[in-house]
Amino acid sequence: MQLDLQLFEATFIEEGKNRFICTVNLDGELIECYVPSSSKLKQYINLEKKTVLISKNANQKARTKYSLFAVKYYRKYILLNL
Known about the structure:
Elements: E1 7-15, E2 21-26, E3 29-34, E4 51-56, E5 66-73, E6 76-79
Parallel strand pairs: 3-5
Antiparallel strand pairs: 1-2, 1-4, 2-3, 4-5, 5-6
């Protein structure tokens, strides 16, 4: 299986009040991203100011243009969108 996935590197700013939304900094622009997790991520890992990978949403009608995909942890990435 081959995935046609384009990833962008951004900086995590904060989780939103809604557990499925976060804010990231992508090339100097603050954008809202979808968080594919059923619980608040800050309960498990501190993401503030961490490098994250985001992907464009396939659904053009989605509330957000991007989804959180992975977070850089030391020199590796932890996948968040399984």
